[in-house]
């Protein structure tokens, strides 16, 4: 009976040992997993501590807030200054455009007046040329008359042929005598020659005067043409300079606009940082709760199987 009781006790102890071993293995596995999770969490916290700046005091936060506000004010002042410069550039571009338009209108008016003056001078030159040709024809005709008068005075006129006698009425003879010019003396011929020479000299003087006037008109037309060309070249140069200045001012306005946008982005970023600093200073960080340890299994109240195998007389560390 005692042997059966001991055997049953041994079997119960062995079953208890198997159960305890399984529980111990499960507990070791859970502890190992918990250790791994704690190691990962420790590594994450270490990384966060390395990356996150150290905690700042309220004075440091106030100082940083003042610096951010100063930078915001400086950015706003630069923004206003850039806007003023951009407005000044736009006003100057408008003034330059108005000046270019006025110069263009003045050049058109000057060119129109020059063309009208050129047309009027061309008509005057044509009229003077016609008058000059008429004076030339008059001078040639007078020269021919003068030469013919010289030849007529130097060579005696041949005697007229004798007319055949015929009976004529006294009235017809009186009419012929009245129509026939009387013979001119040498003094009359010299006087007529002097008059013709004076008329020739007068015609030559008028011809020279008209030639001088025509040359003056041509020189004035050349001067007006040179002045118009110079004005045209000056207007082209002014227009080219205005276009270059406009292009340069446009690039400057684009650069200022880009700088303005960057200043706006910087001001917005500083405002966001300032708000985040305010919120971070007002709300303290919540501490993370530590992980709860898993409950360990309690050991059985009876003797361990190791002590039972060694015998009832042996010393058991559990009983000790």
Automatic annotation (TrEMBL):
<feature type="domain" description="CCDC92/74 N-terminal">
    <location>
        <begin position="8"/>
        <end position="59"/>
    </location>
</feature>
<dbReference type="InterPro" id="IPR040370">
    <property type="entry name" value="CCDC74A/CCDC74B/CCDC92"/>
</dbReference>
<protein>
    <recommendedName>
        <fullName>CCDC92/74 N-terminal domain-containing protein</fullName>
    </recommendedName>
</protein>
<feature type="compositionally biased region" description="Basic residues">
    <location>
        <begin position="276"/>
        <end position="295"/>
    </location>
</feature>
<feature type="compositionally biased region" description="Polar residues">
    <location>
        <begin position="260"/>
        <end position="274"/>
    </location>
</feature>
<feature type="coiled-coil region">
    <location>
        <begin position="58"/>
        <end position="85"/>
    </location>
</feature>
<feature type="region of interest" description="Disordered">
    <location>
        <begin position="126"/>
        <end position="168"/>
    </location>
</feature>
<feature type="coiled-coil region">
    <location>
        <begin position="186"/>
        <end position="213"/>
    </location>
</feature>
<dbReference type="InterPro" id="IPR039496">
    <property type="entry name" value="CCDC92/74_N"/>
</dbReference>
<keyword id="KW-0175">Coiled coil</keyword>
<feature type="compositionally biased region" description="Polar residues">
    <location>
        <begin position="132"/>
        <end position="146"/>
    </location>
</feature>
<dbReference type="Pfam" id="PF14916">
    <property type="entry name" value="CCDC92"/>
</dbReference>
<feature type="region of interest" description="Disordered">
    <location>
        <begin position="254"/>
        <end position="320"/>
    </location>
</feature>
